[in-house]
Description:
This protein is of the alpha/beta class. Helix content is 25%, strand content 24%. It is globular.
Amino acid sequence: MLQSGRCGRERGMVADVLVVAGTHGNEVNAPWLLDQWQQHPDLIARRGLGARTVIGNPKAFAQNRRYLDRDLNRSFQVPFLESDDPMEWEIVRARQLLHQFGPAGHQPCQVAIDLHSTTAAMGNCLVVYGRRPADLALAALIQAELGLPIYLHESDAAQTGFLVERWPCGLVIEVGPVSQSVLDSRIVRQTRLALETCFRALAAATVCRGRYPKTLLIHRHLGSVDLPRDSEDRQMALLHPEIEGQDWQRVPAQQRLFQRASGSDCLDCIPEGAVPVFINEAAYAEKRIAFSLTRREVLPVEDSWRESLERLMQQGTSTMSDPEDL
């Protein structure tokens, strides 16, 4: 492990952290955790950091729906945010969140942690969008402690406008598997553990005590795969049983991916050594994604990542007392 140099900043102004739950209204475990936290302020150790919590999509959450008009986690695209045209509810909500909690908002936050759950049998992971140095530094600190896989999502024109991209630093915590709309104490507990680890990492970065690994293991997004469809756009096959549940596992280039109703297999070519994730994720059926493909890579942890996160955490609006034991 690499420990950063001491910067002599033990207390002072630090960045506030925005914790978002219910960005998708039928993902109910993270909102439950925030409700618990509100009732029991000592439930989650903030390590001296300022924290603000919010339900991302309260209207969809009240109706137990993923969204009303469009996916909120695809609604933070600049053209939507800057347009004066009448907008769908989720675009209005994206503007509200930025107006309130954005870096220039009424209650400004520099870091956004977006809590999600997945129906796919992929366990827990971190999702990072692009290669912003502060995001990678935070992910490295969390991976070093929890060993969570990191899904690096980038260069996909069909999937843009993610919430955390509009804050200077941010990442998604995915916990699962769990069915949509189902409360599960295990999922709540694992979400809490990941969030506490995130606060611990940010607090360590604030006082330049982060213990960074030498390398970061990531799964870089290559693209997404839809189910086979006929000329009338009807689904022709389902996922082959050999690929179901194989998230994070390398598959052969000639892996049988789909199976027709007759029982015959559909052969398809995928990049050699590709690693599928979000296999049969329920929420992605409408997006025509049966699974996404990634490539496993190792990145050297750069000093610029650490410096970016430390600098950001020391530009905030809250007063940090002496940090708890890190």
